[in-house]
Design brief:
single chain; 17 helices; two-stranded antiparallel ribbon; eight-stranded antiparallel β-sheet; 503 residues; 12 strands; alpha+beta
């Protein structure tokens, strides 16, 4: 399954390479013929990723500027919106020239080719055209309401800056489903799949069968923050890598990629990992103590609501058994509200910290990256400037942007896109090949099969090398004393081979 982080990577790649260009569109297998005709000759003006869903916006106007990537200034009545759900094995690769474009596949629903303005002084426009091939489970098109109506059915995306975890929490505490089911329900959490479910709940220390309406806010916050952390890492690296070398250096040193998914033993505590069917998908949990089954809260719905109403801190104090008379009580020590800090062990993404706490909760490096993303490098303060100067500059930019956004409707409200991934698709493919990860577990949806093969050609898969060694054996030295290898042959073929060598 193409998970949410992969969809965001595709959206980011299209925004940096294709948005603002005009395309001709065809449907090679005929399964998107009407949609191809609707977007043919139009400009790709915007790309939005929401969970596992991708939305491409096509405009009939040629003067689409990069500032309209978030929807500002666009006439939504003229837009054609394309909705894509990749399913298990979908992909949308980009080919920089038609010369490197492979043959379309039977699964290719859409082919886009850049329309380059004709120029009498250039004779290379026929080959220097960007083109793309789309293969996906679902591809539909419609007007702007296709985007708004579909987005309304989806839950909160941990990779979007406009995600609302407070709204998600209110939905979860009303649900009688287990948190394992809710994490896979795209109307609650938009983006995570089965691998992420196992690893998110493991790192949050929550057993999958814990009922939603028994979760307290602090436990939910752990789940949400881990979701943000893991999907962001997947976005940056192009792979689902959940082992944190800072938290578990010994686990990382062993080369482990994940803690419990598809494992018999927990990578952290070596305890037994159990698995069972949950709504048609295999669910995993560590039985060694990393994910305790008992919850601090009662499983009674009536009592849970009462406990949630008084707050987890007060409930903990109420639920604590009174100590003997000879033991001094610590309940007189009043808890204080925690002031969040910039955590390097369990980081919250930049956009969420900026939204909740303002520029003060960002590092100087993050502030500079945000300013550069908003208005370019010209507005950056001097590198020698202190943090207060950087904070003030970003706050001024945000205030200016806020005044502009007040004039736009809520349906086209701007959110901050993620910066480009730190690892390219080709490097991600090579990393998977080096680790021996099967393509069926997770593939690079940004690359075609041919592009992925070319990318890993310089780094052969260990699995392929193992197969090669099984087929080849050492049989001695040739006449020059150099060692040679010979593939296994049948007795008759071996005899003929030896006769040719004069044996």
């Amino acid at each position: 399954m193409v998970e949410g982080h992969s969809v965001h990577r595709i959206a980011s790649r299209f925004r940096s390479s294709l948005v603002g260009k005009k395309f001709s569109a065809t449907s090679p297998n005929g399964r998107f013929a009407d949609g191809a005709r609707a977007i043919d000759g139009k400009v790709l003006s915007r790309m939005e990723a929401v969970g596992k869903n991708l939305f491409a916006f096509f405009s009939p106007h040629d003067d689409i500027s990069s500032s309209s990537n978030n929807g500002d200034g666009e006439d939504i009545d003229d837009l054609v919106v394309m909705h894509v759900h990749f399913g298990m094995s979908g992909m949308w690769p980009i080919f920089n020239t038609t010369a490197e474009e492979p043959e379309v596949k039977p699964t290719t629903r859409l082919r886009l080719e850049e329309i380059v303005p004709t120029s009498s002084s250039s004779s290379t426009t026929t080959t220097n055209k960007i083109c793309t091939h789309l293969s996906a489970m679902t591809v539909t098109h419609g007007d702007y309401t296709l985007y708004t109506s579909k987005k309304a059915t989806l839950g909160e995306d941990p990779l979007r800056s406009d995600a609302n975890p407070n709204h998600l929490f209110t939905k979860i505490i009303k649900s009688k489903k287990s948190i394992g089911q809710l994490l896979m329900d795209q109307s609650f959490f938009a983006g995570p799949g089965n691998i992420y479910r196992a690893e998110i709940l493991f790192l949050a220390g929550v057993y999958p069968t814990t009922i939603g309406n028994t979760l307290d806010r602090s436990t939910f916050d752990k789940i949400w923050n881990v979701s943000v952390q893991l999907l962001r890492r997947g976005y940056d690296t192009g792979s689902i890598l959940t082992v944190d070398g800072t938290l578990d250096p010994s686990v990382a040193a062993r080369g482990e990629r994940r803690y419990i998914y598809n494992q018999s033993r927990c990578a952290r505590c070596n305890g037994k990992v159990s698995s069972w069917d949950m709504s048609g998908r295999t669910c995993y949990a560590c039985e060694g103590g990393c994910q305790p089954k008992q919850s601090l809260l009662s499983t009674s719905p009536e009592k849970s609501k009462e406990e949630l109403a008084i707050g987890q801190d007060q409930f903990s104090a109420v639920a604590t058994k009174p100590k003997s008379k000879g033991v001094k009580s610590k309940q007189s020590e009043q808890p204080k509200q925690h002031v969040p800090f910039i955590s390097h062990c369990a980081p919250v993404n930049i956009s969420q910290r900026l939204k909740d706490h303002g520029p003060e909760r960002l590092t100087i490096k993050e502030i500079r990256s945000t300013i550069e993303q908003m208005v370019g490098t010209n507005a950056l303060p001097f590198k020698s400037a202190n943090k207060a100067t950087h904070v003030e500059e970003l706050r001024n930019l945000l205030q200016k942007e806020s005044s502009v956004q007040k004039a736009t409707t809520s349906s086209t409200s701007r959110h901050y896109y993620l910066p480009s991934p730190t690892i390219s698709a080709e490097d991600a493919a090579r990393e998977k090949a080096t680790s021996g990860e099967n393509r069926a577990v997770e593939h690079i949806a940004e690359l075609s099969r041919e592009q992925a093969i070319n990318a890993i050609a310089v780094t052969p898969s260990p699995t392929a090398e193992k197969r090669k060694r099984k087929k080849v054996r050492r049989v001695g030295c040739d006449d020059d004393g150099e060692e040679f290898a010979e593939k296994r042959k049948s007795p008759r073929r071996k005899l003929l081979h030896n006769e040719k060598r004069g044996k």
